[in-house]
Amino acid sequence: MTAESTVASPAGKQREPEGALYVLPPGGSAAGRRVPAGRGARRPRRDSPVFLWLVDGGAALLGALVLPAAHRYPLVVAVLALAVIGLNRRAALYDTFAVPRVLDELPAVCGRIAVVWAAAAALSPLRSLPPAVLAGVVAVHCAAACAGRAAVHAGRRRALRRRPRPALVVGPVSVARRVAAALLRQPGCEVRPVGLVADGLEVLGDTDEEPGLPVLTTAQDACRALIQNGVETVLVVGAATRVEKAAVLRGLAGYGCVLWELDADPPSYGLGGCCWSDAGHLAGFSRRLLWPACARRRGSVGKRVLDVVLSGSLLVLAGPVLLGCALVLWAMDGPGVVFRQERIGRDGRPFTMLKLRTHRPASAHEAATRWSVANEQDMSRFCQFLRRTSLDELLQLWNVFRGDMSLVGPRPERPYFVARFSRAHPGYPARHRMRTGITGLAQIHGLRGDTSIEDRCRYDNAYIDNWSLWQDVCILLRTAAQFVRPTGS
C-alpha cells in the first residue's frame, strides 16, 4: 500500500494495512497518473451460469426417461427443457451475484417445473399419460434439478472460501470499519474487504488509531484500489451512503462491480425470512442488490393478473355491501358518499383515490394537509365502524382494477405529505418505484394510521427490494386475518 492511498490520522501518522494490499502498482509507477475510467480496468471474474443450465437441461432429460416410450417424444422433451430454462432465467435463477441455498430456491424451481409439465400434458401427446405417471415424472425432474443445483452451489461456495471476492466497503468510516471487521472474522464469508471508502473530513475526525484496512477518500483512489486488487464487489453501508456517494458508486459500477447495500443496524426492514429471502445475508448483515438492476425484475405480469382477477371478483362479491354502506351514509349525511382525493402513485404520478366518505373536512386545504381523522369524536358510530373495519376502503378495488393501484404495495399518500416525508426521510421517494397498494408489508406489521413514517418507509422498501408473487399472496392472507383493526390508514 503506498502512502498516496492512505489518510493521515489526527496524530499525523499514516495508516498502514496489515497485509500487502496495493492500491498503486509497486514502486509507485502509477503515482500521479489518473486512471481513466473504463480503460485498463481488470474486469471482475464472473461465475458462469452454464453449469446451472446443464443441470436444468439434464434434469429435464432424466425426468423424461421415466416416461413410458420416452423415445417417442424427443421434440416435446426438448421444448420442455428450453421452457424450464427460460422460466428460470426470467426468475433470475441463473444470476451468479450470490450463492443461494437450494432450500431457498426449492419453491421457485419446483413450481416452474410443475407448471411446464402441466402445460406439456395439456397441449402435447403427453395428455394421454395417467396422472400418477405424470406426478412421478415431475417428482424425478424436481429431485434431479434440486440435487444438481445444490452440487453447483456447494462447489461455488467452496471456491469462494478458498478465494473470496475482494470488496470495498463504502460508508461512514466507523460503521464501514465495523462491517469490514465482522466480515474478516468470518473465514467462510464469500467476500474479503480490502479497503474502506469514506469522506476525508470524517477520517480526520476519527479517533481510532488501530491499524487496519486503508481508507480511500477520493474516487480516483477507489478506482485504483479496484484495479489493483481485482475488486468485484462493493458493499454500501446504508441508504444515506447510496445517495451521498452516488457519483463514486456509478464509477465503480462502470467497472463491472456488483453493488450490494448492507443493513448494518439491525433490526432491518422486517422479520427474518420474509423480507430478505432472495437477497439473503452476508455475515449476518441483511443485503439487497443495487446493481446490476437487471438482476431484479419488478412489477411482473403475474402481479397485474392477480390484481385484475382478485379486484374484479371482490368488486362483484362486495357490491351489495358497498351499496348498503352507501345508502346508510346517504340517509345519515346526505349526498356525496364517495370521497375522492389526489394521491401519489408509481413514479410520482398523481391519481384520484376513492373511498366511502366517513368525514367531511372543513375545506380542501384541510383535506390535503390534515394527517388523520381516524379517532375523531365528531364521527358517527357508523363511520367509526367503517374506519375500524376498513369497509370505507373497499372502493379502492376500483382503483386496483383500473391500474391506479395494486392490491399489495406501499400505501399512497397526498402530495403535501409526500413532499414533507421525502425531505425528512431519505428512503421515502424510493417507495414510488412500485405501484401503490391497498395493503402492504408495513400494514400487516401494524404500521397503520398515526405510526412511524420511518418504519413504514423501511418496510415498504424491503417489500419492493424482495418482491415476489408469493409474498403478495402471503400479505393478502395475513391482511384477511387482520381485517378488523383499531385505526385507519
UniProtKB/TrEMBL annotation:
Subcellular location: Membrane
GO function terms (MF aspect): phosphotransferase activity, for other substituted phosphate groups
Family designation: Belongs to the bacterial sugar transferase family.
One Pfam family recorded for the sequence: Bac_transf
InterPro entries: Bact_transf (IPR003362), EPS_sugar_tfrase (IPR017475)
Keyword annotations from UniProtKB, A to Z: Membrane, Transferase, Transmembrane, Transmembrane helix
Compositionally biased spans, kind Low complexity: 25-39
Matches recorded under PANTHER family: COLANIC BIOSYNTHESIS UDP-GLUCOSE LIPID CARRIER TRANSFERASE (PTHR30576), UNDECAPRENYL-PHOSPHATE N-ACETYLGALACTOSAMINYL 1-PHOSPHATE TRANSFERASE-RELATED (PTHR30576:SF0)
UniProt organism field: Streptomyces curacoi
All copies of domain Bacterial sugar transferase, residue ranges: 303-484
Parts of the chain that traverse the membrane: 50-69, 132-152, 305-332
Record-given protein name: Transferase
Annotated GO CC locations: membrane
Protein topology in the membrane: Multi-pass membrane protein
Region (Disordered): 1-44
